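Practice problem: predict the structure.
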Amino acid sequence: MKKIVIIGAGVSGLVAALHLESNGYSPVIFEADTKVGGRVQSNLLDGYILDSGFQVLLSAYPMAKKYLDYDALNLKNFASGSYIFDNDTTHIIGDPLRDSSILFPTIFSGVGSFSDKWKVFKLSKALKKKSIATIFNEEETTTLQYLEDYGFSEKIINSFFKPFYTGIFLETNLETSSRMFEFIFKMFSGGQAAIPAKGIQEIPNQLASKLKKTTIEFEKSVQSVTGNKIVFNDESQQQFDYCIIATEASNLIPNLKNTEVVWKSTQTLYFEVSTEAVFNKKMIGLLANESKALINSICFPYTENSTNALLSVTIVKAHDFSEFELVKEVKKELNKYFKIDPSKYLKTIDITKALPNLLDVRYSVNPSETQLTESIFLAGDTMLNGSLNGAMHAGELAAQAVNEKVTGNILS
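Answer:
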């Protein structure tokens, strides 16, 4: 009957609670927000579901398959390809093995040479055979160096890989670890990229709905964690036997003040557009070879509003525009590069802490490595890698470590 508490009701904290429940515990989660999800949230505006940034679920994620019910999420899959907008020309590049209709558009697109496209197929086939453990144990370099070493041409790197993975890694120079590139490429090749019909918020909502013995206390902002005591911002306190911190811990624990995580940021702008502007295929639109443009990518997320269409625009580059100036500039670029004239501006969502900028990405660790003190354990994607899978896995590992601490039974 140990008092186990979890700080943070994001996907990592929720998975930690699920794992603890499966071992007979009844944890308490303290969440500063008014709802679950952390960085995985959605909000309703003018009948549209707006996700906090353009986020997708990669159905091949091992942890997602373990903890989520895909059918209940009513996933809306993206087609396995991208529209490439380049100098008034639109190309399509994708995986013809999964969608035969894009075979010839991919082969005859001007996005790289035939050799480049053969290398994409070859890389996909090779990574399907490579285990995740092998990927994360290999020597790492930057993603850009990896692509160049693999023999991809400068054209396909600039036209496809840079804009596509800029939107995933949230940095424009492809400096992210090659391990992360291989992992994400493997996940795209092995499954679907999808969004729940009612928004990305449905993922943490579903996790929370599975909790039967866990108490979630909302609007409980934590000031500090020391020893076996939590101090909240309202100066109230809570004692515990074991605590899992499933959010950034550096601002909660005094001796971690100098280990603050560096975060990558992004912005998502939402517009309402005419249905005539919607892509024929449910794919992301990438802007290639435009170093001066602000827009990285656009897409049309699924919406139940059949009269008009929801347009999502992703911005990764840093800038000094005010919201008014930013909307004006984005509208101009939408018209110039994509021939889209939005009918209504909806909202700009700033995500200052979108992804942790990790120098050492790992797929997993020994559960004991999540232990910070005798009673405090760490979770969250900052422990492993910046992904939904990483967040879930870290939550599970921290919960496993707590159970091993209590029972003395260390799982192999």
